[in-house]
Design brief:
CATH superfamily of the largest domain: inorganic pyrophosphatase (n-terminal core)
Distance between the termini: 36 Å
Strand order of the largest sheet: 3-2-1-4-5-6
CATH topology of the largest domain: inorganic pyrophosphatase (n-terminal core)
Number of domains: 2
Strand content: 15-25%
Number of strands: 12
Bound molecules: guanosine-5'-monophosphate, manganese (II) ion
Mean pLDDT: 98
Amino acid sequence: MTEREITDIGILLSEPKAIVIVPHKNPDGDAVGSCLGLYIYLCQLGHDAIVIAPNDYPDFLKWLPFEKNVIKYDSQEKIADTYINNAEVIFTLDFNALQRTGDMESVLKASRAVKIMIDHHQQPDGYASFTYSDVRMSSTCEMVFNFIEMLGGSKYLNPEIATCLYTGIMTDTGSFRYPSTSGKTHRIIAELIDKGANNAAIHNAVYDTNSFERLQLLGRALKNLVVLPEYRTAYITLSQEDLNEFQHKKGDTEGFVNYGLSIENIVFAVIFIEQIQEGITKISFRSKGDFSVNEFARTHFEGGGHINAAGGKTDLDLSETLKKFIAILPQYKKALNS
Ligand code: 5GP
Ligand code: MN
């Protein structure tokens, strides 16, 4: 952001405004954490703010401060539309193309509110009046911290904001291990702990609240893991039947894809998850090093994301999706082995 833009946003926010904050569909820890952190900050400034998520998020985020105030568009469309139509400012967080909000896309497009994007994904669209986009950032939560600091709002950082931002940085960096974790990330984390984020309690709430069924589902996923050494690739499949057998709940498969990457010499890991009701197969891609899963997902699977973490989907069933994937791999043999 330029200094000029920060000044303009400061002026915009100097009087109470009707503000809507939106994360991407199927919001993760960074999406929910960044929205709530910003929400608490804006409420303290006296704004009439609300977080509207396209749909629900996993139970392991349902302890975050003020999480109960979040409106879910898919079940509360009418009231959500009213908020959006009346909004003077709309923040879009942790995504950079309006289609990532699913059914909210059209009402957001139609809104004449000042739109402010805060995001760290590759290749942002140009829909926002103010675009704070930086692909080097570990997380949108880190950017919200910077955003509050740039606006001179550090004195408003309280234990609730600190908790929300800590959570999103933690989940998006794989607990501070991915290359996007910088010295600055750690300095921000230190500051958030000083402001009242209880790090041990947050790790426990997110990672140590598994259900028995989820661990059984993980067992099935690991059993289904296939390694293709010639492509340094590992992939997992989960059919709708697998999900049903273990009473799958939203968020249960979060993180499974990473197990493929933990195998020695593997640089590309994928998980295919069949979703019969939605008529799609959802895919998550992860990589190590220079192999861009953002490009891979964009080119072949209607998706995108970051260089080392991206998502996508097909309208095909699981076996057809897998066939398509296997057919594509040979053209990447060199890239995967370089
Ligand atoms: P995940 O695999 O955990 O769902 O997502 C990995 C990363 O890719 C996240 O940063 C997520 O926001 C992004 N992502 C996931 N699915 C999609 C998609 O369908 N399109 C785009 N553009 N990004 C996605
Ligand atoms: Mn993120």
